[in-house]
């Protein structure tokens, strides 16, 4: 009886910890305070207007550019640690092709729970080669991935802002590999 009670208590504590973490993550994605928004906004707002941005190919702006199928391009603009123990990766998905593309279903990954919630970037992962761990996109309490969802197609030349949220690797791990199905992997540095 004592072992059964201990096991149930541990499961309950783990469930509470995960639920609290996901709630904090979901709150971080919402309309938090004004002081947090500028930190995670694209670099164009920091430059003060319509000056040159990552779309003109400045060498220092994107952390990484990943090439995907049929002219899809993912430019990662930031990967920042949040106070709640999460990593938020922001970027832009662009169609460099000459025709409208349907977003491949493979980008959602192959987990049944994520696929059930529609098209997303839920297949993205961060790989910590130092700690030998892979981090998957977080989910909310309903099983929806904490990432951009609902993208079914993208017109030629169109750019769509995207985000993905992951559990944070240890603080002494600043570099990880970002991977998205059908795209070339890229090494990124976590800020914060």
TrEMBL record:
Looking at the record's lineage, which domain of life comes first?
Answer: Bacteria
The UniProt keyword set, sorted, is: Signal
* Bias kind Polar residues: ranges: 40-58
Any signal peptide, and if so, which residues? Answer: 1-26
Q: Which PROSITE patterns match?
A: PROKAR_LIPOPROTEIN (PS51257)
Residue numbers spanned by region Disordered? 28-68
Question: What name is this protein filed under?
Answer: Secreted protein
The species this protein belongs to is Streptomyces chartreusis
């Amino acid at each position: 009886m004592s072992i059964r009670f201990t096991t149930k208590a541990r499961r309950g504590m783990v469930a509470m910890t995960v639920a609290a973490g996901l709630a904090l993550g979901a709150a971080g994605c919402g309309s938090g305070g004004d002081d947090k928004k500028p930190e995670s906004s694209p670099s164009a707002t920091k430059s003060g207007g319509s000056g040159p941005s990552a779309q003109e190919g400045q060498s220092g702006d994107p952390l990484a550019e990943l090439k995907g199928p049929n002219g899809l391009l993912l430019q990662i603009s930031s990967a920042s640690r949040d106070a709640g123990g999460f990593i938020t990766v922001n970027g832009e998905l662009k169609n460099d092709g000459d025709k409208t593309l349907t977003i491949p279903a493979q980008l959602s990954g192959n987990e049944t729970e994520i696929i059930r919630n529609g098209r997303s970037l839920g297949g993205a992962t961060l790989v910590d080669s130092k700690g030998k761990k892979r981090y998957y996109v977080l989910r909310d309490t309903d099983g929806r991935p904490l990432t951009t969802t609902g993208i079914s197609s993208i017109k030629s030349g169109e750019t769509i802002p995207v985000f993905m949220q992951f559990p944070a690797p240890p603080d002494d791990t600043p570099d990880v590999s970002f991977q998205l199905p059908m795209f070339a992997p890229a090494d990124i540095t976590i800020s914060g």
